[in-house]
Write a structure and sequence with these properties.
2 copies of one chain form a homodimer.
Chain A lengths: L4 H8 L3 H9 L6 H14 L5 H8 L4 E6 L7 H14 L3 E6 L4 H12 L5 E4 L5 H8 L4 E4 L8 E4 L1 H14 L4 E5 L6 H16 L3 E5 L6 H6 L1 H7 L3 E4 L2 H13 L9 E6 L12 E4 L2 H15 L7 E4 L2 E3 L12 H14 L1
Parallel strand pairs in A: 1-2, 1-3, 3-4, 4-5, 5-11, 6-7, 6-8, 8-9, 9-10
Antiparallel strand pairs in A: 10-12
Helix pairs in contact in A: 1-2, 1-3, 5-13, 8-9
The structure holds a DNA duplex (30 and 30 nucleotides).
Amino acid sequence: MAVTIRDVARASGVHISTVSRTFSAPHLVNPETRSRVLATAEQLGYRPNRAARALITGRTHNIGLIVADIANPFFPPLIKAAETHARRRDYHVFVADTDEDPIVELDLVQALAKQVDGILLCSPRMSDDQIEQVRREVPLVVVNRMITGLPAVVMDVGHGAREAVRHLLDLGHRHLVYLAGPRGSWTNREIRRAAGATARAAGADLTVLGPNQPVEETGAAAAEAVLRTGATAVLAYNDLMAIGLLQALQDRGVDVPGQVSVVGIDDIAYSGLVRPRLTTVANPTAAAGRTAVDMLLQQGDDGATGQVTLRTDLIIRNSTGPGPYAPAVAITAEVAAAHVKE
Amino acid sequence: MAVTIRDVARASGVHISTVSRTFSAPHLVNPETRSRVLATAEQLGYRPNRAARALITGRTHNIGLIVADIANPFFPPLIKAAETHARRRDYHVFVADTDEDPIVELDLVQALAKQVDGILLCSPRMSDDQIEQVRREVPLVVVNRMITGLPAVVMDVGHGAREAVRHLLDLGHRHLVYLAGPRGSWTNREIRRAAGATARAAGADLTVLGPNQPVEETGAAAAEAVLRTGATAVLAYNDLMAIGLLQALQDRGVDVPGQVSVVGIDDIAYSGLVRPRLTTVANPTAAAGRTAVDMLLQQGDDGATGQVTLRTDLIIRNSTGPGPYAPAVAITAEVAAAHVKE
DNA sequence: TAAGCTGTTGCAAACGTTTGCCGAATGGAG
DNA sequence: CTCCATTCGGCAAACGTTTGCAACAGCTTA
C-alpha cells in the first residue's frame, strides 16, 4: 500500500540506494539526480519508514518520557516543553504514566527500551539499584532525582525550601510543619532535610507530617493534624497539597494567613488562582524538560553524565503572613513587599 | 549488543522460527520446547524488537495522540486515560502538541502516520478537507469534533449548554452572555447554537462576546465588556475563561454570584478549588480518551465509523445565584440544593 | 600515455522479525 | 504392516531501509 523507496526508485529510474542517499546523504548524489528524485518522491508522497531505518541504523529517533502522573499539574508544562523541543530536533516522544507505581515504572522502561534512543525518567519512584540496572539497557536522563553517576536534571528544591523557611521565620513563625510528600521521592527528602536544617539553625521547631500521596485530598485531610501540632506555618511538598490544606483550613474557619501561613512548592498554574493566592517556590519545569532532552540527545556523542541543577525562586503571594513572634517593624515591610508582588 | 531472537535460538538449541512462534503463536510449539525457550529468553533478558516486528506485520502497536495544548488542563486527564487504556491493550502512545496551529497539526499527523497504527486527533483545528485527506494515510479517530463519515467521540456539549442556560433562566436571569471560544472550534459552535436557542425559546437575551483564545487571560480581559452588556449571568466556553472572569470580576468589587452568575464548561480539576466554587458542565474526558482508543483499535477489524456522543452533566456549585427575576420560592430551594452539592 | 584521483552510481548484505511451505516424526486406524 | 492425519520444527523469503564495496567515467598529473 504505502509508497516505498523502491517505488520512488522505479519512477525516477535510479537504484534504491540512490534514493536512500538522496535523503540520508545528499552530498553523495549528483544535484541533478537528487532534484529529480526529490521531485518524484514529493509527487508520490513518499515518506521514509522510520522503523525500517531504525532497524539498520540502530537509532529510532524516538524518546520515552515517563512520569508519575500526567494529570498532576506539575508535569504537563514539562511534557509540553520536552515534546516541542524534541520535535524541533526531529524526535518523537512516547509519553507514559506510572500512576506512582515503581513496578509499572520498571515494566514501562523495559518495554520502551527497544523502541527509543533514550528515556527521560521524571520523578522516578524506583530504587537507585533498579535505575542503575535499567540504565544498562537504555540511555537515561533522570529528572527530579539525583543519583551519583547518572545524568540528571534537578530543581534546586533545597534552596527553595531554605528560602521558604527563612521567609516564614522572618515573619515571626517559630513552630512550622512540613507536610511531606510520597515515600521514595528524592525531592521530598531534599526538602525535608533543607527545611529541617534551616529551622533548627534558627532555633525553631519543625514537625514533619507524612509521608503522603502528593494530591490535593491528602493536603485537605491533613488540616486536622496540622492544627493539633499548634504550628502557625506550613510548608507543603507541593502546591496541590498546599491548596488542599488551604481550603480545608478555611472550611474550618481558620484564617489564612491570619492564623496559619501556608507555603507550597512548584508554582503550578493554579496556585495564583486560589484565594488567598499561594506563596510558593517556583520550579522551572519547562526548562527542565528542554535541558533533559538536550542531555539525552548529547549522551549518544560522548559518555558525559552531567548533572544540572536549575534555580528555584520563592514567590511571595498572600498565603503567608506575620507569626506570633513577629518583630513589628520588619513584618510590615515584609508584608508590604508581598503585596507589591501580587 | 542487544539480545535478539537469534541468541535465544542458539542458546536453547532451536531454530529462530521456533523462538518467534513461542512468542507470537505459542499454540504451534510443543509445551516442553516452549518452556525451555521461555526460560532461556528470560535468562538472557530477551525482548522482541517491535520495529522489526512492525516491519513485517505492518502493525506497530503504537498510536499517536495529538492535542492542541498539553498544558491546557482539559487534556491531561484525557491523555492519561488514553495512555493507560492503550497500554493495557499493549499499545504505546506518542503524544504531540500542536500549539493550536493547524499547520503543525498537519505536519505532525503525516510525520507520525508511518509509525503508528492510528491517530487520535483531539480538538483539531485543521479544515474538514485536510482531515479527510490525512484520513486516507492513516486510521483516525477525532475527538471533540464531528465530521460526517469520520469516526468520532464528542461530548454532548449542546446538552450541557442547554442545561446551563436553563439553570440560569430558572434562577431568574433574563440577560445572559456567552463568552465564546476559539474560531474553528466545533465545540464552540455547538455551545453557541444550543445556548442561543435555549435562551431565545425562553424569551431571554443572549449576547455573544468573542471569539477568544481559550485561556484564563481572555476571560479576565472580558470582565469589562461583560459588565457593559448589563447581563447578570455568563456562560463561558471553558472553565479557564470562567475562572479568569470570576477573579477579574471580584477584583473589580463585583460580587459573584450576588451580582453576576458565572458558569464554566469542562469541570477541570481546579474549578472546585476557586472561590466561589465554579458551577460548570462536567465533561467526561477520561471516558472520551478510553472510548477513542477502543474505537481506533477496533477500526482495524471492520471499517465501522461510529460516532459516539458522551453525556455531560451540569454541576451546580456556588458561582451561580438568583437573578433579578427570581421567583422567591423556587430560588431558595435551588440555592439550597446547590449548597448541598458542595 | 599511463597512472591515479574524484564524483557518481549500482550491487548486495544486513538489521530482527514473521510466516507460508515443506519434511520428519509420531500414532492411530484399517 | 501400510497409510494417513496430525503435530512439530526448520528453511528461506520478505518487510523497507542503510551502507561498504566495487565499477565506471571523466579528469588531472607526470
